[in-house]
Amino acid sequence: MTVSVSSRKYLSATLAKRRAGLATAVASVAIAAVGCSTPDPVPEGEYSRVAFYDSLEALRADSDAVVVGRVIDQEVADDVEPGFHFTLSDVEVMDADATSGLAAGDTIVVRQVGGADTPPLANLLGPENTYLLFLTLSGLDGRLATQFYPTGVVAGIYVAPGIDGDTVEPLTFTQFERDDADDLPTEITAREALGW
């Protein structure tokens, strides 16, 4: 399956509004059967990015928010272009960086390409894990403007599987999916990411 030209234009235009160095997810995507909670990489999916990261500082600088949270609900929507689906994850914030304006107990929406008949570009968030997320505002209009994309498609997603309770420290998070073009640590703590 090939991502349509209008979908490419949408993704490019939406994220190009952001500071230089933000990731865009545009390319052809082959159909892959990947569930929302699988940690296995999408074997045939492809995406292109306009930036790669060589440090947490660079990733943080391109992010509008850094949060620790867990998925409490998900839906698939084609609310930007009919037939082009996104998985929308409602993420309950457990902790956030001071500059984001977010706090524990807030709920945010994280958008990822994929769902229904649109193959995912990367592994999708799932409800069974606690995530450390570097996020970029969507740049969309109306009610969608407050939604987020993971910064750098995969670069901004770290995971701590199966955590019970609300304690985020001393959790260690590992990369959810690795892009070899990034030079980021494979493991980080909430303290390192949130700048406590």
Automatic annotation (TrEMBL):
Keywords: Signal. It comes from the Bacteria. The keyword Signal applies. Residues 1-32 form the signal peptide. This is DUF4352 domain-containing protein. It comes from Demequina sediminis. The lineage of its organism: Bacteria, Bacillati, Actinomycetota, Actinomycetes, Micrococcales.
